């Protein structure tokens, strides 16, 4: 059986370390120790911790299953709900100890790193684009209020989700998520 690439092991370890500890608290040595590779291997694959953080953000975004929002086979409101339920389930499964990496980096590091700020903006932008597309699909199907601007509604929902996520982590409770789901699906998007 072939050994996986050290690069992949480093990326996976970095994603876990960044998600658990944040950018500043995750030292390169912590990442390489977790990956089980020599520290020198890090610099064979990445020029800096920032460069690794950008790859980790991209990998994080891929793991969110955001492409499911664009699946034309599913009913749009159900796709939107399923997407947020997937995110909710991940937070609850981790006992409210991990937030959204986009949001975490957005509050911790973007004022100090232009490249990470751009990667966070790109990740949030893709999320908003796909969510906005699902909202527009729902409007065409007559299942979502027609007067909503899909792009603005998507950006609002992402902001509301990130806020609910912070509250849920602070309270160690699903109640903020329950409020998010109730207001989103029983009021905001409902025809």
Polypeptide structure, described:
- About 70% of the residues lie in helices and about 0% in strands.
- The N and C termini lie far apart (about 55 Å).
- It has about 190 residues and is an all-alpha fold.
- The protein has 9 helices and no strands.
- It has helices spanning about 5-20, 30-35, 40-45, 50-65, 75-95, 100-110, 115-140, 150-170, 175-190.
- The chain folds into 2 domains: about 5-55, Homeodomain-like (Arc Repressor Mutant, subunit A); about 65-190, Tetracycline Repressor, domain 2 (Orthogonal Bundle).
Contiguous runs where pLDDT drops below 50 for at least 5 residues: none
Helix content: over 70%
CATH topology of the largest domain: Tetracycline Repressor, domain 2
CATH architecture of the largest domain: Orthogonal Bundle
Number of strands: 0
What is the straight-line distance between the termini?
Answer: 55 Å
Average pLDDT score:
95
User: What does the oligomeric state look like here?
Assistant: single chain
């Amino acid at each position: 059986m072939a050994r996986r690439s050290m690069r992949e092991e480093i990326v996976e370890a970095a994603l876990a370390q960044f998600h658990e500890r944040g950018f500043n608290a995750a030292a390169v040595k912590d990442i390489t120790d977790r990956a089980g590779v020599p520290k020198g291997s890090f610099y064979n694959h990445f020029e800096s911790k920032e460069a690794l953080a950008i790859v980790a953000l991209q990998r994080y975004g891929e793991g969110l299953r955001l492409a499911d929002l664009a699946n034309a086979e599913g009913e749009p409101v159900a796709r939107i709900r399923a997407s947020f339920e997937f995110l909710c389930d991940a937070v609850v499964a981790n006992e409210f100890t991990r937030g959204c990496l986009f949001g975490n980096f957005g509050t911790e590091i973007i004022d100090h790193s232009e490249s990470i700020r751009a990667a966070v903006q790109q990740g949030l932008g893709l999320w908003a684009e796909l969510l906005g597309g699902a909202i527009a699909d729902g409007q065409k199907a007559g299942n979502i209020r027609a007067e909503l601007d899909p792009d603005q509604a998507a950006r609002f929902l992402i902001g509301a989700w990130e806020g609910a996520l912070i509250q849920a982590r602070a309270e160690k409770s699903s109640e903020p998520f329950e409020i998010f789901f109730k207001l989103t699906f029983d009021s905001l998007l409902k025809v």
